[in-house]
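Quick note —
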Amino acid sequence: GKSTIFKQMKILHQNGFTHEELLACKQNVHNNIFTAINVLITQAKLFNYDIASIEVIFFLFLKISFFFSFFLFELIFVLMALFFLKQKNEISLIEELSSGSQLSMDLLQPITKVWKNKSIQDTFMRSAEYQLADSASYFLNSLARILEPNYSPSEQDVLHIRVKTTGIVETSWSIESARFRMFDVGGQRN
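Predicted structure written out below.
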């Protein structure tokens, strides 16, 4: 978008972002991840996808085990129920996060598991049918790096961040003897 051009001009013609400016973008990266995974979960539900489904192999294993022992059947049933509840809890945990939540390494596994879920991936493949930031896969595929305790956003991360522009933003730069000024007016469309 237009704001991305501003960021690119800063990188190309104004010596890029300072370390402090990059660190200030960390919460926006986290917000983009939070928004993307929640949009995917919500949309998967609207598509009537079973996002907490149990893999077919568990059902086959269950049927085979039934013939071996009733006790084993009960044990597998309990394990399957725990697996289902764990997936349900991961989704619930993610849904309970609010925008502005600080993401941490203890959320890496739940978010990664949900992101890699087949129904979520199918939902992602249909993203032309609903509004999902084009940077969703970039951030969700970079979770391990982003959720590191000492993470500092890279310039590439900053270019992928989506934040609604409010107000009027001005930037200027010089190339040789020519002076350029650019304005971004929040809420405007191309």
